[in-house]
Amino acid sequence: MKAIIISAGKRLESKDTRPKILLKLCGFSLLKRDFYLLRTVGIRDVIVLGESYTPEIEKEIKNGRKLGMRLDFVRKEGWSQALFSLSQGTESDLFLLIDGDCVFEISLLRILLDFKKVALCCDSQSDENSGGGSPGILSEDGQIQRVGKNLKSWNKIYTGVALCNRRILSLLEDQGVNLTDWPVSLNRVLSQQDVSCLDLSEAASYDSELRRKVKPFWGRINSAQDLKEAKKRLVTGTQKRTLDAMAWYVHRPIENRITYYLSELPLTPNQLTIFTNILAFFITFLFFKGNLLIASLLIFVVNIMDGLDGKQARAKGLFTHIGNLEHSLDTLYEQSWYIAFSWAIFTISRSLVPLQLCLAIILFDSFNRHCSMQFRAIMKVPLADYSPLDRAFRRFDGRRNIYTVYILVGILIGQPIYSLLAMLIHAMVTGLVYFLSSARHMHAADMGR
Predict the structure, then answer these.
(1) Residues in the chain with pLDDT < 50?
(2) How many whole angstroms separate alpha carbon 447 and alpha carbon 442?
């Protein structure tokens, strides 16, 4: 499948003649953000349809080609050229048509692509800020009847993203369509082509990564205030629902505040992952060297940093397959902490008990992770979010954020061996609850309940 991004309209400030697609949001222009999102959903052939080929747009397109994308610029008079380009090298008759002055989350694209037929992506529950300047839509039984900015009767708002076919583009070309009002021009071709209305408010779906049902955020950018509001919504939208008490009440507000400012920097999520792991393994070194207090305090810095890469990726729309390896690295440095901490206690006490406790902790920690991983792979929903009881237990289950509190407390009272004992007990209880809960839910699924 291919995509067309429409670059039309200037910024409201009279002295600024740049197209809106060059406005910066979370460190990227809207155009570059669209490139990243399209690449993530597997669309690498993109046409930018605009009024003029400015040096700034040329630069963004050159950078986009470095991402492995095939990008072209077509002037607004070149609908026929765009139509010809769409017909080359693809069997699909469908393509995405995106208003360049709109911002949206990647889940919107996924929902629309899964629809697999000609449709405008609409919203029947949009707040008045997000849809400023967007055409209203009157639809009945899922089919669009009228589109316009001054309709007397309408029940949805256009979100700026559509799934079209080449026939629609050809019909619009025959009508001499205006780039800035192309959806309104659909009124002239609705009698010749059925166009569905995909309502985001009805298509909201469960996101297993965020552990909650998500209606994709979208907004049209007409002012600096719109940019500010969109950024705030994108950052807060990165938040997972079900977390342990430490992550929810302490880490969450700090991470969101840092992400709000960090998103403007050219740091990628993968670079943040690297910095986090460098500090994490430095903590392992400190534990091995016996610097227990400094190491235990730095752990809390890592615990906050660990949440930044994922939030940075979701805020910027910058997703990569390799970024998923971050979870494997988490396991590596977490368990290296437990080993190094136990080794430090062993070198002080010369007792094998710390090492024995450490082996048991790693055994149950691995078992807990595998139960959770296996449940998610089979049931397609995280165990921590499967039922109200599971969500309640997730607040206090045994994991790194809780274990690191035990480590600090044990060091402060001068009895680090008690830290290991508390960690083991918590890990064993967690393993028992995880296993029994997984077995109960899976058995219910087997029985069709």
Answers:
(1) none
(2) 9
**Are the CB atoms for 113 and 21 separated by under 8 Å?**
no
- Helix runs in 94-206, H state only: 106-115, 166-174, 182-185, 200-203
End-to-end CA distance of the chain: 39
For residues 328 and 109, give the distance between their C-alpha atoms in angstroms, rounded to a whole number.
Answer: 28
Strands 196-199 and 119-123: what pairing? parallel
At 367, list the tokens.
């078992």
| pLDDT (0 to 100) of residue 173 | 72
pLDDT given for residue 10 in this prediction: 58
In sequence order, what are the beta bridge partners of 274? none
Residue 28 dihedral angles phi and psi, to the nearest 5°: -120, 150
Task: Compute the distance between CA of residue 261 and CA of residue 438 in angstroms, rounded to an integer.
Answer: 40
Note the pLDDT of residue 50. Answer: 84
Structure tokens at 345: 């206690």
Beta strands in 132-194 (DSSP E): 136-140, 143-148, 156-165
What's the pLDDT score for residue 53? 84
Q: Which residues, at least 6 apart from 421, have a Cβ–Cβ distance to it below 8 Å? A: 357
How many helices (DSSP H) and strands (DSSP E) are in the chain?
A: 18, 15
Structure-block tokens of residue 36: 């990243």
448: left (phi over 0), alpha (psi -120 to 50) or beta: left
**Are the C-beta atoms of 196 and 117 separated by less than 8 Å?**
yes
3-class secondary structure for 323-374? Answer: HHHHHHHHHHHHHHHHHHHHHHHHHHHCCCHHHHHHHHHHHHHHHHHHHHHH
Q: Are 46 and 69 in contact (CB under 8 A)?
A: yes
What is the C-alpha to C-alpha distance for residues 316 and 231, in angstroms, rounded to an integer?
9
Listed in sequence order, the residues at least 6 apart from 31 whose beta carbon sits closer than 8 Å to its beta carbon are 5, 7, 21, 22, 48, 57, 60, 100
pLDDT of residue 413: 96
What is the Cα–Cα distance from 197 to 214, expressed in whole angstroms? Answer: 19
State the Cα–Cα distance between residues 161 and 217, nearest whole angstrom.
Answer: 12
| Short-list 386, 406, 217, 404, CA closest to 306 | 404
Query: In Å, what is the CA distance from 305 to each residue of 65, 224, 265, 339?
Result: 31, 29, 15, 21
Strands 205-207 and 70-75: unpaired
> What domains lie within the chain, and their CATH numbers?
2-220 (3.90.550.10), 241-446 (1.20.120.1760)
Cβ(158)–Cβ(134) under 8 Å?
A: yes
